[in-house]
Amino acid sequence: MKNVIVGQSGGPTAVINASLYGVVKEALAHGEEIGHVYGMVHGIEGFLNGQYLDLGKELTAEELERLKLTPAAYLGSCRFKLPEDLGAEFYPQVFARFEELEIGYFFYIGGNDSMDTVSKLSRYGAQVGSPIRFIGIPKTIDNDLIETDHTPGFGSAAKYVASTVREIVLDATVYCQKAVTIIELMGRHAGWLTAASVLARKYPGDNPVLIYLPEADFDLEQFARDLEAALEKQNCVIVCVSEGISDKDGTFICEYGSEAALDNFGHKMLTGCGKVLEQFVRSRFGVKVRSVELNVSQRCSGMVVSATDVEEAARAGVNGVKMALKGTTGVMVGFARVSGAGEAYRMECRAVDVDQVCNREKAVPREWITGDGNDIGQAFIDYALPLIQGEARREMEDGLPKYLYRK
Amino acid sequence: MKNVIVGQSGGPTAVINASLYGVVKEALAHGEEIGHVYGMVHGIEGFLNGQYLDLGKELTAEELERLKLTPAAYLGSCRFKLPEDLGAEFYPQVFARFEELEIGYFFYIGGNDSMDTVSKLSRYGAQVGSPIRFIGIPKTIDNDLIETDHTPGFGSAAKYVASTVREIVLDATVYCQKAVTIIELMGRHAGWLTAASVLARKYPGDNPVLIYLPEADFDLEQFARDLEAALEKQNCVIVCVSEGISDKDGTFICEYGSEAALDNFGHKMLTGCGKVLEQFVRSRFGVKVRSVELNVSQRCSGMVVSATDVEEAARAGVNGVKMALKGTTGVMVGFARVSGAGEAYRMECRAVDVDQVCNREKAVPREWITGDGNDIGQAFIDYALPLIQGEARREMEDGLPKYLYRK
To answer: Which of A72, A210, A339, B333 is 20 to 30 A from A184 (CA-CA)?
Structure first.
């Protein structure tokens, strides 16, 4: 009888613990084939330093349920890139640890870099004839993994962005003067999360009226023309931008502001593109303008999660265990949308080759970006709407959400 | 039979519409004494320009219930200071409008400046022998009105701050390296909302470990010593600061960063104190550091509201109407905490002289600030905890909150 080890890696999401829940719950249900369910603390990096827990012993049934709705990464995380050279001494070291703990099944919940870890470990495992099965469980708010319809974490982040943008629109429209609000959203290379701001719209022409993604070149003069046209139609204009928008030469818009900006300590001020555009609008248009950065709450808000996303994240974990028990290795649990046009949304898990997934990024299709690069079309709305459905019933204590913490 | 007019003024909150709901609901229930229930659009400023609605006709019963849980200001708002001189032509103009609409009862929902409006109108009314009753309904996330235990809007903002800080703490502690996160919270003069970040703590010594309010002088060197001590005890340190913290000479900390910071368009960059402290920590400590500004979501988040706050905001509106019907004028609806020590929290509404309230601010008592100015004591926790209790059951549509909008 072999044991399971599971780890979390990369940035937190609202549902990465739901996937951990899925792995643990399913593994514990297979007591005839699986012994202990270990968790790496701080990912593969912590594991190499001997940091791990016995999750089957650590968590009561009640705590396991609480884990499912706790944001961020219960086991802690790391950003650790495995050596490219499979001959590096790292590999026999980590496999010796696997042997000590009698590991038969390895699960790693994360994004792009984590899938690279799964790919390398499974390739090294194949090379040395290891029987361990290596499975990747996807997670990223960026939604930029290929070979999967979407990634767990995106639905909740998209719901948070759409709800919050809708509220900021309400807030911004209480006065009757001309005013521009620029909302900067996460997404350095892929604009999926920024695109989700379109879901905040209640009718055609409603705010946010301008949306810019990294997938389309950003031009300051075109932006000025877009904004002028919008301000002619309405007093209050909300603009949503990805942090990673760049111009046709590949220069990030956030870099436009950094040259002259030194603080009193002589350091370069790090300014987001929202602030840069705020200053531009103030100087060019002379209207009231403010910028808002939604920041880390996009990825760690447990109060606004999509129940669909939570359940799918858990299913990804459950299916990973099932695949491993069937003997599959070197795969990531991918999501396939199996419903046809007009049918209710349905998703199925399938194994995809992890070597194909890692180190590649999925951009928002250029044809989903409309309005000469300043808007998002119906194709994205149809794609994203099913992913933000449903609310989670959260445990509360003293007026605040009750989450699970590692002791 | 006379009519009611009600308006909203100042910055939005999550529950200012719950007070509007309370006024409308109670006024409509007194059909024998009250005719129409009018709403000023964009406060007294819009009203003077002839902008108003007949709320009794405008809103269905279903919409009125939806209004109760819609954040921001349904009627729109304004920032408009009435002339100091009661002899100014403004006053007969606005009273002529009241007469046209046969107004008998005037309700104004807002903060400090709005209470100044109620005070001036009621003093002018007394001077000219007007029978109109003028009532102020308090609202501000800043909680800085005097003569009331707390203000509607604060409980929900405090709950939002405590929940969000707790999530940012979870997010920040996933890695095991030394790191500092600085969270900048609203509050230019009063630190009530920043103090609420202490509620995010789960046990003594938990993050946020350092909290600074405008009520205590901020000293950069003392901050460096506080932070050094905190970093010796733990890897991950969360610091919460009010936007309005200032040094012993009264210079705002956010001004420390502004001298050298000019953008590419030659304009002074407006930097918050969070950014200034981020740069300071980076330069002094060389650790990983980031700053997060919670921004407008503190006042307009409808997803994280306190049910206690919503109900109290509605009660303030209801009680305002009751007071007016009894003949009271020139008052604000104040909250008195009537429960004794150890008893369950209970609140009662009472009429307070609006002239006493306006243009004065209530600071956090200095003795509630502990730890040499870097912490918040139990007295505040006991005060604030009852105000953030309970969740509101919100109507959802297509995965997003369904709010009410003016047509």
So the answer is: A72
Residue A265 predicted with pLDDT over 90: no
pLDDT at residue A260, as a whole number: 43
The torsion angles phi and psi of B334, rounded to 5 degrees, stand at: -100, 160
Predicted local distance difference test score (pLDDT) of residue B260: 44
Q: Do A264 and B269 touch (CB under 8 A)?
A: no
A228 or B344, which is more confident? A228
Q: How many residues does chain A have?
A: 407
What residues of chain B, 146 to 165, have a C-beta less than 8 Å from chain A? 159, 162-164
Question: pLDDT tens digits for A276-333?
Answer: 999 999 999 999 999 999 999 999 999 999 999 999 999 999 999 999 999 999 999 9
Alpha carbon A252 to its chain's center: 21
What are φ and ψ of residue A343, in 5° steps? -75, 160
User: Cβ B175–A77 below 8 Å, yes or no?
Assistant: yes
pLDDT, tens digit, 9 for 90 and up, residues A34-46: 999 999 999 999 9
Close Cβ partners of A111 (under 8 Å, ≥ 6 residues apart): A9, A10, A11, A138, A139, A140, A142, A144, A145, A151
Q: Dihedral sign, CA of A210, A215, A221, A222?
A: negative
Which residues of chain B carry a pLDDT beneath 70? 258-270, 341
Choose among B72, B294, B400: nearest Cβ to A174.
B72
> Do residue A269 and residue B262 have CB atoms under 8 angstroms apart?
no
Find chain B residues with C-beta within 8 A of A301's C-beta. Answer: 164, 167
Q: Least CB-CB distance to A389: which of B170, B171, B399?
A: B399
Quote the CA–CA distance of B27 and B33 in Å, as a whole number: 9
Count of pairs with CB atoms under 8 A, one residue in A, one in B: 206
Q: Which residues of A touch B265 (CB under 8 A)?
A: 279-280, 283
Rounded to two decimals, the ipTM of the complex is: 0.95
Residue bearing the bigger pLDDT, A167 or B271: A167
Q: Would you call B199 an interface residue with chain A, using a CB distance cutoff of 8 Å?
A: yes
Residues of A with Cβ-Cβ distance to B39 under 8 angstroms: none
* Residues within 8 A of B (CB atoms), A 280-309 only: 280, 282-283, 292-297, 299-304, 306
Burial class (CB in 10 A: 0-12, 13-18, 19+), A341: exposed
The residue among B379, B13, B161 whose CA lies nearest residue A399 is: B161
Going across the sheet that includes B331-337, the strands are B52-54, B34-40, B2-8, B103-110, B133-138, B331-337, B347-353
Measured distance CA(B58)–CA(A191) in Å, rounded: 40
Q: Which of A397, A376, A392, A401 is nearest to A187 (CA)?
A: A376
> For the packed helices B90-100 and B112-127, what is the interaxial angle rounded to 10 degrees?
80
What residues pair up with A182 in beta bridges, in sequence order?
A: A239, A291
Residues 81-140 of A with CB under 8 A from B: none
